[in-house]
Amino acid sequence: MLGKAKKQSDVDLGENIIIAGLAIQVLFFGLFVIVSAIFHFRIRAMPSLRSKQISVPWQSYLFILYIASALILVRSVFRIAEYVMGSDGVLLQHEYFLYIFDATLMSLVMILFNLRHPGSIVNKENLKMAHLRDPESGESAHEMTRESVRVHK
Description:
Blueprint: H1 8-45, H2 49-53, H3 58-85, H4 90-93, H5 95-115, H6 124-128, H7 146-152
Helix pairs in contact: 1-3, 3-5
């Protein structure tokens, strides 16, 4: 399984490192989804002036983010289970699990983002607005530049 390992203890160590890395990835990705959901809940409960004025359907993009995140999390948990079961486990013995829990899920994520690509949010109108004042800044005399818009989004 691991190319350079000569002893079984080295192979086991490598597999444990991979499993730990995948578990940390799932943990932090899960935290990202939770923080996104908290943001979504709070902005819906108390919308900011900017969120009321913006013409981008940002809530639909958050729902797309949730669906894609769920698919990616299922795939990641599958990968952890695959490594935990080892090379003689049922998940690696049968190729159809790989097609279902890896290829299909990632294809669905790709299709989802092709149907509603986040890049469509950035358009000429949004770039022109970069020269206007941020409505949240109130009485501030600070003019927003393109760089500060990128940082604040």
